[in-house]
Every structure is written in C-alpha cells, then in structure tokens.
Amino acid sequence: MRDGYGREIDYMRISITDRCNLRCCYCMPERIESVDMKELLTYEEIVSVVREAAALGITHIKLTGGEPLVRRGVDVLVRMIKDIDEIEEVTLTTNGVLLEEQIEGLLRAGVGGINISLDTIDPDKYHRITGFDRMDSVMKGIEAALGSGIPVKINAVSLDPDDVEGLIELSKDRPIDIRFIEIMPIGMGKNYPGIPHDELIAQVKGRYGELTPDKSRHGNGPAIYYRIPGYIGSIGFISAIHGKFCDSCNRIRLTSQGFLKNCLCYGTGEDMRKILRSGLEGEALRDELRAGIRRCILSKPEAHAFLQREKISEDKSMSMIGG
User: What DSSP string describes 238-261?
Assistant: First the structure.
C-alpha cells in the first residue's frame, strides 16, 4: 500500500512492552510507572493487527520495546508472525542483556536479524548511561548472536565523539554493522543535543581515511553504509535530523498499548486496541482493523519537524512508543 505521497509502506515496528531492564538517560527516567499488563496488547492481538497489515502490503516486522526480551515468550511471537504467509522477515531490537540466554529460542523461531543497542564500550560510561553494570552480559549476547549466524547490527546513539572509535573497532574482525543514530528530540531525548552526523562522518574520515560507500542491502532501514579498508563489518549512519530521509520512509509503528503511529514526530494515529476490544468478531473485526491501518497509512505526514520543536506533538517517551 502507498501513502498519500506515493511512498510504499511495507515495514512495521512493533513495541511489545514499555518495560526495560536498563534506564538509559536519554530514553527512560529513573522513576517510571509501567502500564498494567492488561493495557498491553496480547500476542494474539498483535498477530491480528499484523495479519491485516500484511494484507495491505506490510512484509517486514521489527519487534522492539522497551526491552522486548523482558516479556516472556518473544520467540513464540516471532513464530506466530512468521507463520503469516505475506511476512518475509521478523527482526528484533534489544539492549542485549538477556540475549545470550534467549538466542537459541529466537534462532529456532526464525528471527531474521538482531539489532543490539550499545552506545559505548567503556564499562564506566556504560554504567553512567544505562544505570546498570551489565556491559559484560551485552558483550556475551553479541558473541552469542554472532555465533548463531544471525545477522547482527549494533545501534549507537551519537552522544559522545570519544566513543566512536571503540565502537567501530568492534567491526574490524566481526561481521557486524555499526550504526550511529542521531538522537531524536522525543521524551528525555530533548535534553541531549548529540552529535550532528556531518561532524561525526568528518571525525571518522579523519581517523580512518576516505570511506568506501557500501551499496549492498543491509535491511529495511534508512542507514547509509560505508566500508573501512581491512574491516569485516560496515559502518552506517542514520541521520534522521540532519540527513532527513522522510521522502523514502516506509514504516509505521504499533505501540505496546496498540496505538498505530505513522510518524515518530507526531502524536496522531489510530487506536487499534480500541478496535480489537470493541466486541467485533470475525470478518467485521478484520474489516475494521484493515480500515484503521489504511487510514493511518493514508494520513502519514510528508515529513517530520524535529528541527522545529514547537511542531512536535508526540509527548511520550521512546520507551512508551517503541525504539
């Protein structure tokens, strides 16, 4: 299905929980009230939405949180979604803390890729950013994912230039994509300026020399990739603020409470939970879900307004929306 600006929408990010076992300073406040589990969509409800979204052209699913691996049975959900004929791939974004112990179940379920959030390889700084001393668990999770053969990406929010080189070095002898992401002014992120990516790319070139563009396919996202000579992995930049890519945006987002968003910048969208719990059944329910998804896609705005903060209407934290 295409939106009102002719963009093909084939990718849905689904938050399955607002809970997390870390407290990253730019994402979650130290004290946060999690919603009651009954307010979250059940796995069966998520699958109902995905099934109708797939009928409208969604083929790729990314499961997110909060931290998705704190919710039991993520591998079961992966399999349930994979069983929908039109769905080509289900991938996962995680902070990696619980990944080592769950990798085998995810592999059996057919997960197609894993993104691991890691902003620094300095243990002390990791503790300051996340509030916990769990970097060792994350590194074990990365190695377990690599050992499984599942494609691995590391997502690093561009906060401190001193962390860039250490993260890039993880890709020297490992088949990992290291992706730097400009921080978005959503929730706690409004308090962190981050590094504009024109400056970051100049820094990387100053250290490693001219980068070679990597035109190979790396997934469904908007990262622009480069290769460093002699390095196994690639380096990617997701420049949502200073390298605006709205003209090629292909995604919608389903929050853990069932709100379907068509743009991260705005608080508008469709309440799928209301439809799911309206009492409708069978074909009537399927028709209403599909109609809601269609409305969401057709009302997708032309572009975000992150550089004009007075126009941002989303007031929830990223943990509530889904990273």
Answer: E-TTTT--GGG--EEEE-TTSEEE
